[in-house]
Amino acid sequence: MSNRYVPTATALGLLIFSNGAYSQSASDTAGPIERVQITGSRINLKQAQLSGVGPVTVIDADTIQRSGAISVETLLQRLPSSAGTAGNQSSAYWTSNGYGTTQVNLRGLGTDRTLVLLNGRRVVSGGTGANSSVDLNMIPIAMIERVEVLKDGASAIYGADAVAGVVNIITKKAFEGVEISARYGKTERGDGSEKALDLTWGTRSERGSLIGSLNFSESGTVNLASRAPCALFEDDGQLVCSGSSSTLGGRARLANGRRVNFNQDPNGNPRGYETYSAAKHGYNSNPSLNAVNPIKRIGMSAFGNLRLNDKVELFTELMFTNRQSEQLATPGAIGATRPIRISASHPTNPTGQDLVLERRRVGEVGPRIFFQETNTFRVVTGLKGVLNDKWDWSASANWGRNTGVDGMTNIINLDRVDATLNAATCGSSPTAAPCGNYLGYGNLTKGVLDYIHTNTRDNGGNDQKSFNASISGQLFDLPAGTVGVATGFEYRKEKGWRDPDSLIVSGAANTNAQDPIAGEYAAREVFAELSVPLLAKLPLIDSLTLNGAARYSDYSLFGSKSTYKVGLDWQVIASLKVRANKSTAFRVPNVPELFGGVSEGNLTTTDPCNSWNTQDPNSAVYKNCQAARLPRGFRQFGPSILTTGGGNVNLEPEDAKTFTVGAVWTPSKAVTVTLDYFNIEINNAIETVPGSTKLSVCYNSPNLSHLFCSPSSFTRDPQTGEINFLSSQPANAAQQRVSGVDFGAMYDFRLFGWNASATADVSRLNRFDVTPFPGGDTIVYAGKITGGRGSYAEWRSSTGLTLVNGAWSGSYNIQYIGAADDINAAPTDIGASAPSVQYHNASVKYAFSKAMSVSFGVDNLFDKKPPYIQSWTDGNTDTMTYDLLGRRWHARLAYRF
Q: What is the average pLDDT across 671-690?
């Protein structure tokens, strides 16, 4: 029997199944029941026995097609169980070395705490080097059969990183013929075009099958100023345009303390200046930024299986994706990372006073462009087979590799800027630096601009190799049913590297300095899973099954780690089921956290023991500094302390405990209702804490008892007492607590002669608390919008209706994002609270025949504008949560032969 996946009512395709696995139509109820495997379990048992593995949401192929999406993250980020931030085209600046990447962030716990699988196996991280999460761009949407989202911890089943849940992307396997599809869309304003072309072909016989595809997609640009003409800030109870303090012409502080701005008109007085005014001189960045950044993907893939004999089958997966992406950025500025001091006697200085050029945006050359090109391939090959009617096995090797180059145009070499300001040497010979006048827009000659500007180019990559073998089947029979078991072994090696441009490494570029990153680790794991039917066919106990799993992991860097999962599945009566799962999970530190380039810098820091003897003798600081044997009258030698930053090879895995309990009510074949409670606790979470905070917390703790008092945080010179080592490197210090409730419903019915299906998927976030270190203040995120971490609205939902009648079908979906408060705003501020927002999406499809179909859809049907958020990321709103584009349409034509 083949399992059919019933199209749902919503454009998101949310299927919430009564058994946590599959939803079947009435026509699927006849015939023998085959053994299958679902996300959340490795046991292959008869489908009727697969239940209670946890809350699973499914996005099916029909839903993906109706949505018009050209990348799977569009659908995943609309899930009510998603929160926080993840990379997409409108939030491209969210992560280092990850520009242009796309991810999913379940429960808002971070993209590196959501495990992404492809056909049940791991996928290499993506980006431009030393990355921590899968780039969903690499997976062609035309090849996806369905996406299963397990909203439960599953480290005992799948290993590290399955803390918030698992996203398992299942590709098409059985396909015969050739299908060509073309998709095009754009916004109502005529920008942001999206186009995709997919060619899929396949063949199958009694001995096996082969399916391949070629995929192309490209998304256009939407300039930010077209949606938000300027950056808005509150002034005297009103929103007004406000620009960046990195100004054209240059903002300077004179020796007498006066701040001035130099001429901003290229046709004005080249030596003119006036008192600085933020309202008058601020630079409007929005025309030099994009609301949507362009991205192009080209991919090819092949999936095949060959039956070697009646009991053994060879399978292979091949994938390759090339991604090219860009982000528009404002013209570069000088003065931020290196002070520029110009004397009163300098020939370019018209003020007659010494000055410090605090900021000067070099707008003469135009905006910068950040660019990336990545190549990702994945090869899987293996064997699987059956031993008898009750047991099956599989063994496979998996190699994935991602390489990338990225860079920036119009980057300024600060060493060369210094050379152009050296009046004694600049312009003195043909080989000398030209003399530059930075005090006034338009004063820089083309020769100076060419001399100080350059393009940077970085490269890096990620590599993953793994081997796994497992066996699954029926162990023996009990009175209540068959005991199922799965066990196996897995070896995995992860590697990441990144080599920034030499100018960036040297610190001479007008951007953040970076150090090379390189590191690797290996893991050896064994796992086992058991499903034991305890009771059956009793009053109020139609069946009661105990599910258990355990995994032992041995890491080359961290030592061993054990996790478990135990659950109960109680079928009370035929229409009511109760399920509960408790598990432990863990996340291993990623390559940047472990091996990020370690650097030292003098940072402004206050030593708590500075003049400690003048403080209250009963205070913890007084007692601790005295206990540390610092001399009375100890004085800090200067305002800064040499601080070490970067990666930390001493990091340990994060620990998590997860608990879910829920019920599934199926009063009829047409109705399914689910309700699940989830609770996640993460300890030893990796957090970067400033060195000054570590010192303060340590010396305010009783008897220097805090973990920040250890030598890994700071040390002192035994002779002078001066701090000679202070770390701001990441540490296992934080705690996170998350809980909430998920509700789902699906109802199939007839409506005026049409087959109809209505669905609802609702998530309520009760708690999201983060304590950055022991003794630190707990940050409450539930119901808040953050400045850079996305939204943690308490309520999110997706509801929809699908109609089918012969050749016609259509769907209507409503995505709801609840009200939330700006975590950084005062209650009376404009933008302190965002109202609830609803986005309406609709699509219609007509099948001319079995071979040809056409579909048309509209997203954001009512052109809903994003709310103003005081802690906006771009466009005066939270681009990680709200839609900047407005109403947009898409059309798709498919032909199969």
A: 93
